[in-house]
Each structure stands twice: as C-alpha cells, then as structure tokens.
Amino acid sequence: MSVAILAAEFLTRMAQNLQPDQPSASEQYLGEDMTTYIQWNNDRAREIIAAHALFDGAALPILHALQFEFGFIHEEAIPLIADALNLSRAEVHGIVTFYHDFRRDPAGRHVLKLCRAEACQSMNGTGVAQDLLATLGISWGETTPDGSLTVEGVYCLGLCACAPSALYDGEPIGRLTLDTLADVVREARAP
Ligand code: FES
Questions:
Q1: Does 29 have pLDDT greater than 70?
Q2: Would 91 be classed as within a structural domain?
Q3: 65 lines ligand 1 (CB under 6 A)
Q4: Looking at the structure, do residues 93 and 9 belong to the same domain, yes or no?
Q5: From the CB of 8, is ligand 1 less than 6 Å away?
Q6: Shared domain check, 83 and 36
Q7: Which residues in 168-182 are b (16+ Cβ under 10 Å) and which e?
Q8: How far is the CA of 114 from the centre of ligand 1 (A)?
Q9: Domain residues for 116?
C-alpha cells in the first residue's frame, strides 16, 4: 500500500471517529486479493456504491470495495461514483489514477505484490524482481499472457525483517529468492 493511500486512510479514520481496533470502510478490503473476481456488471457496482456512499470520504471505500469484487476499477465505474457522490467525473478519475493501488485493467487469476521499498531493495529485492519480470516477459503492473499472474510493486509491507518480501494472493512471503518465485509462478500456472 502506498504512503499516499495510508495518509488518506488515516484522515478517513479521523473523520469517521474510529477506535484503533475498528477497521475503516476501506481497511476491511486491504491486503485481500481474491483469486476469483466476478465479471464487471453495472447493477452489482451500483449496489456496492450505494452501500458505501454515506461514509465520510466515501470515494476510497467505494473504490476498494469495487476492486475487491471485480479485481479492477472499470471505466464505467467513474460516472456511477461521480453521480453517487456528487463529484465530477474528472475528480473521480483523478482519485483512481492518483493511487497506484487501483487497477485499471482486470487482474490475473493470482496477484503477486513485490515490495520495492528501501529495506527490500537493500536485500536484492530489485534484482530478484527484475529477473522475475524478465523471465515472465512483463513489466510492473502487467499480467502474464496466459492470465495466470499479475505482478505489482508495493512500498513496504511491514515485513522488512524478512526482506525482500512479497504478498501472494494476500499471503506474506519473506526472504524471497529466485527459487521461491519460481515456485510461486508454478503454483499460479497450475490448473
Ligand atoms: S521495505 Fe519491504 S517490507 Fe518493508
């Protein structure tokens, strides 16, 4: 999760007057990556938007909930959210594009998030990640042609002691090596 989105979450928690042990409307979706997303449909999206529209700072909880359900933020979500929150389409588009956590395209069947922050960099996280991307023939944020795996960058998972670290479908993995990642790719491609 990016620093920017953490800051936004902090402000949302303040606005919602939440206790430390209470998850905010967005936090209930964080760190979760479903491996079976449902296909985009406007009716379900409207239900999700309506269920979150009355929260303070509703845009982020809505976007997290939509991504949790569909795996990405469909272009058609922009006008639906804008209408529900009385925002311009440009404002909603600006929020979606500002936070790298929100995908604009469908994810693969599995999602691997590799930490790109300092502690992981210093333990060869960059080298391991570049080797993986080169082997898969994709760039950051892309999905393998067979649709099995999306690889995304994140900035500190709170697992610095086990650097370099990653999340695979929401499960933490520490002390990454090329062998560990080869196992992840094999598992992702398994039928
Ligand atoms: S820097 Fe990678 S988990 Fe903290």
A1: no
A2: yes
A3: no
A4: yes
A5: no
A6: yes
A7: bbeeebbebeeeebe
A8: 9
A9: 110-189
Number of domains comprising the chain: 2
Query: Could you tell me if the CB of 185 is within 6 A of ligand 1?
Result: no
What is the distance between the alpha carbons of residues 167 and 159, in angstroms, rounded to a whole number? Answer: 10
13 in the same domain as 72: yes
pTM assigned to the model:
0.73
pLDDT bracket for residue 3 (50, 70, 90): very low
The residue with tokens 């933020």 is: 73
Res. 190: pLDDT tops 60: yes
Q: Which pLDDT belongs to residue 158?
A: 94
Last residue within a domain, chosen from 98, 127, 142: 98
- Which one has a higher pLDDT value, 38 or 59? 59
CA dist., res. 59 & res. 82, Å (int) = 9
Q: Is the CB of 128 under 6 A from ligand 1?
A: no
Q: How far apart are CA 108 and CA 35, in angstroms?
A: 8
Per-residue confidence (pLDDT) for residue 184, from 0 to 100: 96
Q: Is residue 103 part of a domain?
A: no
pLDDT of residue 43: 96
Q: How long, in residues, is the chain?
A: 191
For the Cβ of 1 lying below 6 angstroms from any atom of ligand 1, the answer is no
